[in-house]
Amino acid sequence: MISPTRVVFDERQRHAKIFLINSSQEYKTYRLSFKEKRALPQGGYQDIASEENPMRLSELLRMTPKQVRLAPGERQVVKLALRRKKGMAEGEYRSHLFFQALPNGQEQGQPGGGIRLNMIMSYSIPVIYRQSTSLPQVEVEQAQILRSDTGLYDTVAVTLKRNGNASSFGNLRVLWRQNQQAQWQQIALTNSYSIYPEVSRAELKLTILKPELLQNRRSGQLKVVYDGGSEYTEQQFAERIFTVSSGQ
């Protein structure tokens, strides 16, 4: 367990703490390092070399400790210290703190001819610092209900457009109503959703939580709402209503 799963330094903050908890039933050793990643429009990341990320934050961060060994249920505080440079360019700086669980070595020389699968888990979290950035501007370009091979409407495809030199962060909701007299019903949701500065147009597919609501639809309306979270709490990035005709 890692908490928080995202770190954002503001222009006055210089230190941050991350809690690493061994929730397994055996001793675990974790190695910590920084990685550079590029966000992809369809979601996820691509690992890149350091020189490919001119806005990397890793060279401005100090981390302690860099390796820990935890007993079952034990926790460790990982401390980050930010050292700014003079004359930094405006924009959002980001690197990813990488946690890698190392093998215990207990599988060495195991008797017998059986096969033992040893899962080595790793996880990374974004670490962000914003230098004189503006509020990101987000628009909902498109929303469409997709039919699966089974004939059910079980996915909503949403396209978002982002402008500005900072990432957005929040919860994306999709609601449906049969007509203007009906109440909105939430049919899809994704939490903690970011659009990073290297992504100008994001595409995502959300699973419909209640496909039965759309099973016999003829027409209706979709509403997509992108609400800010964390440092963007009480900020709504975007909202748009789409009319769904019977021919779609």
SSE layout and pairing:
Elements: E1 2-3, E2 7-9, E3 15-21, E4 28-39, E5 45-48, E6 61-64, E7 67-70, E8 75-82, E9 91-102, E10 122-131, E11 137-147, E12 153-163, E13 168-177, E14 185-195, E15 201-207, E16 220-228, E17 236-244
Parallel strand pairs: 2-10
Antiparallel strand pairs: 1-3, 3-8, 4-5, 4-7, 4-9, 6-8, 9-10, 11-12, 12-15, 13-14, 13-16, 16-17
InterPro entries: Ig-like_fold, PapD-like_sf, Pili_assmbl_chaperone_N
Pfam family, one: PapD_N
Domain Pili assembly chaperone N-terminal: 2-130
Write a concise keyword list for the protein shown above:
248 residues, mainly beta, Immunoglobulin-like, 2 domains, six-stranded mixed beta sheet, four-stranded antiparallel beta sheet, 54% strand, globular, Ig-like_fold, Pili_assmbl_chaperone_N, PapD-like_sf
Structure description:
The model has no long low-confidence stretch (mean pLDDT 90). The chain is built from no helices and 17 strands. It has two domains: 2-103 and 120-131, Immunoglobulins (Immunoglobulin-like, Sandwich); 137-245, Immunoglobulins (Immunoglobulin-like, Sandwich), CATH 2.60.40.10. The chain is an all-beta fold and 248 residues long.
